[in-house]
Write a structure and sequence with these properties.
Two copies of one chain form a homodimer. With 462 residues, chain A is an alpha+beta fold. In chain A, 35% of the residues lie in helices and 20% in strands. The first copy, chain A, is built from 16 helices and 18 strands. The two termini of chain A are 31 Å apart.
Amino acid sequence: MLDEKIKQELIDIVGSENFTDAKIDMVSYAYDAMGPKGNPDCAVWVTTAEQISEIMKLANREMIPVTPRAAGTGIAGMIVPFQGGIVMDVMRMDRILEINVEDRVCIVEPGVVYADLQKALAPLGFTLPTEPGSSIASAIGGNVATNAGGLKGAKYGSTKDYVLGMTVVLPDGRLMKTGTRTMKTSSGYNLTQLFVGSEGTLGIMTEIILKIVPLAGATATGLGLFNSLEDAGNAVCRTMSSGVIPSVMEVMGRYLIQAINENTDLKLPDVDTMLLVETDAYTQGDADMQMEKVIEIFKENNAFEVTLAKTPQERADLWAARKSTYPVSARLNNSILVEDVTVPMSQLARLFREFGKIIEKYELKVAMCAHAGDGNFHPLITFDGRDEEMVEKVEKANDELFKLAIELGGTLTGEHGIGIVKAKYMSLEHDPVAMDMMRTVKRAFDPNNILNPGKMALDNDD
Amino acid sequence: MLDEKIKQELIDIVGSENFTDAKIDMVSYAYDAMGPKGNPDCAVWVTTAEQISEIMKLANREMIPVTPRAAGTGIAGMIVPFQGGIVMDVMRMDRILEINVEDRVCIVEPGVVYADLQKALAPLGFTLPTEPGSSIASAIGGNVATNAGGLKGAKYGSTKDYVLGMTVVLPDGRLMKTGTRTMKTSSGYNLTQLFVGSEGTLGIMTEIILKIVPLAGATATGLGLFNSLEDAGNAVCRTMSSGVIPSVMEVMGRYLIQAINENTDLKLPDVDTMLLVETDAYTQGDADMQMEKVIEIFKENNAFEVTLAKTPQERADLWAARKSTYPVSARLNNSILVEDVTVPMSQLARLFREFGKIIEKYELKVAMCAHAGDGNFHPLITFDGRDEEMVEKVEKANDELFKLAIELGGTLTGEHGIGIVKAKYMSLEHDPVAMDMMRTVKRAFDPNNILNPGKMALDNDD
């Protein structure tokens, strides 16, 4: 419970219309899109860097935790306020401050929704090509805070590859600019990239400078059908090292395909594994040449059918199938766990195979999908969350998945971040010195551990 | 002068064949490829992480500065040991530890020369596309330490875009792994990028994991002739925002062209400004289509002639001209100063124009060149270094150039780094809070300020 005096100070900073401690709001702010429940004392909608600065000074003085939050679409618990305190909602900072095609940059506030930015860029012939799965809802601030990846990561990389600089409020309330709007710089430490993926633990972004790129002039879209995930995994690995880099390589497994067919009228083929692939270029000839190479590789890796989208409608249908993954999976049972381990490309088929054994062992239902082109595996484990035995099985399978990914030279998370959900696995991936240096950085920026405490295993001493 | 006991300890660590304090070696190790003179006490050739670790422990115990050094091709003074102590030469750590085409990564020691890595990658159809101007001589360790850019930055970015992870010895001697060999990760703070561009002030890399990319299947090479640098600058800006991204856009000015013609038999046209451009793609049709667009834009921006390289020899000649820039400029007088300010693309023409006024004011001879596609300007100021008045003029012009670049929204350095040469300008670009946080990071990693002290303005309090 917030002290009345502090509550009044917060209201003085943001205005009463931008403050809430109403129970119904506290329920909303207790969750992200999936994770466990927090216990916020209040929430503020900030609209300026100055307000954020004042709040951080107050929080530091009173030692109150502050949890920054954008669209709330995260699923690793990073915006869940487990230690109470203030939820700082940045979604009213939603201005696109500048789009400068000549400089190939845009500058946005953290609450700009990804899809809205894309809508503003597209008529100019430009794009921010990161395209997270949550593109309709997630905000740029959250994309940057988690270093979000997405459907086009195979060719276009992750959010970090597009963040050139930012304005950020530090935990002590000071305002700092990092980076530049130039295409490159070697001037000083790269503080910008320290904030990208830092999950709101080092500062609160108020402006973000992003590099934008021209929309591809031409694309080709194809679909490969396979009898096993493993064959598809091998096809992806061979494709990505063949000399062409498709922009999209999405794997969908049997259970997911069935779920899509049961819940939509997309009428996907009843197969074990589908692999959606897209190539792009300036010219159709180039995109088609890449696709020919992809098809050849698919066939060499046991694709029993490869079809091309010949019309925009066919392409839209393929995409609709892929985009329906989360909604249809969420219908499969009352609980769902989505992971995003990522492995070196050569280990993808093996990851599919070994994880197949794990889910068999624990008798789990898993909708398999993957941003396979960058080795990013998304198993959607669906289960009855009221069944304790089942919950325990899911947790065990999850443990084994993380261990497996690390054994294969992979990482715990390709694009969702660590948050609280993966915090206990951090030392599986990072050696004790790296853990120590992350904690050292955290202490250097936030000595009172005020900002988003308890996340990313930064408080622990293991 | 090094204490005899410490000297013996160093010899015990690296072996007497890997230690020197001979006067002739100390002269070599007092310089980089351009900057002022340092005063090393000794140098060691390290070959293992363990040796580096032992030396750092010793240096910390005895408070001796350690200056890491790779190929020594830098020109910002970052490897110059101004505070004496130990020069740590990593050039005997020159093994390519792994090239894995399936994973699209290679792992190298810091002393691997860029060109040698390229030679190993090319037969496999892959490349590290950063291509610094110093590609024949510079080493990957130095490329990473400076976040080196290069000739293909317009399309392919800088070194930072290819560094996925590393093994690094911290100033206190502890060994740490950062990052991963996966194509993406959102796991923990991005310590990797904190080291990229940190100029050997935070740790000493012993292994570097780099992303590699397929060689382009097809290229087109063209040359635009202009009556002014400003027209060429406008042509570059228009091209880069037109929807195509050429891989190369190199500007060469009149004085440079004359110098090339006087010192080679390349017989370049006697014009004010040349703009070398290259496009690439999987297919020739795509590269040609991009080039057609470029030519159209060049003509709209007053190019009075545009020619295409029709044979490999013609292409090689154009490249030979560009690659001769430094050697021929160095012949123009006994001293040369090379800068690398970088501005937003829209400001490039203005930078050319305003800098033209500066050199006119100070009556300087400047060979103009630019990696123009990413806004990176390389004026090569040639002068008589024995003429004090001239030296003063050069310094004043340099001051004005940095102020101009920052006024235009640019950065002090696009690819060479800060070192000592640009240290005094750091607070022009970075606000006091950013300067404070860079120093805070430095202190957190290196509390005794043992590692490459005095660089990047990290010691100052301004």
